[in-house]
């Protein structure tokens, strides 16, 4: 499972994976929300883990770092709000990353990169 692979990366304490919509594109893109140990987590190590253990289509395109994951009454990760918030850095105060296969890294996702993704200038 994708969450198990992502959760096995160095410095990742907890992980949940879900799909987010990208404006002007059909379907959903994979996104992972992670609780990490800031001292041990590395976006580069995460990139290596997901690309070595998952097919490209299954590897999360976006990553969000959170202080904690919201849990339901039945102890499952609550994803509804995460899906609604998507990957828009204007709506999220937490660190966001984009899987940039060209540079072989998860790169910080800022408003400029977000606009390039939404406009199709950066291909996903």
UniProtKB/TrEMBL annotation:
Entries under InterPro entries matching the protein: AMP-bd_C, AMP-bd_C_sf
Domain AMP-binding enzyme C-terminal: 1-76
UniProt GO cellular component terms: endoplasmic reticulum membrane; plasma membrane
GO biological process: long-chain fatty acid import into cell
Gene3D superfamilies assigned: 3.30.300.30
Database matches in Pfam families: AMP-binding_C
Domain of life: Eukaryota
Assigned keywords, A-Z: Ligase
Gene Ontology MF terms in the entry: long-chain fatty acid transmembrane transporter activity; long-chain fatty acid-CoA ligase activity
Family classification: Belongs to the ATP-dependent AMP-binding enzyme family.
Record's protein name: AMP-binding enzyme C-terminal domain-containing protein
């Amino acid at each position: 499972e994708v969450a198990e692979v992502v959760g096995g990366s160095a410095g990742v304490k907890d992980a949940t994976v879900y799909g987010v919509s990208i404006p002007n594109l059909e379907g959903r893109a994979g996104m992972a929300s992670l609780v990490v140990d800031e001292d041990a987590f590395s976006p580069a190590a995460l990139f290596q883990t997901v690309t070595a253990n998952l097919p490209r289509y299954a590897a999360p395109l976006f990553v969000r770092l959170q202080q904690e994951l919201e849990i339901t009454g039945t102890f499952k990760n609550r994803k509804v709000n995460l899906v609604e918030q998507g990957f828009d850095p204007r709506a999220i105060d937490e660190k966001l990353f984009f899987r940039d296969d060209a540079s072989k890294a998860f790169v910080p996702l800022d408003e400029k990169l977000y606009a390039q993704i939404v406009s199709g200038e950066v291909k996903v």
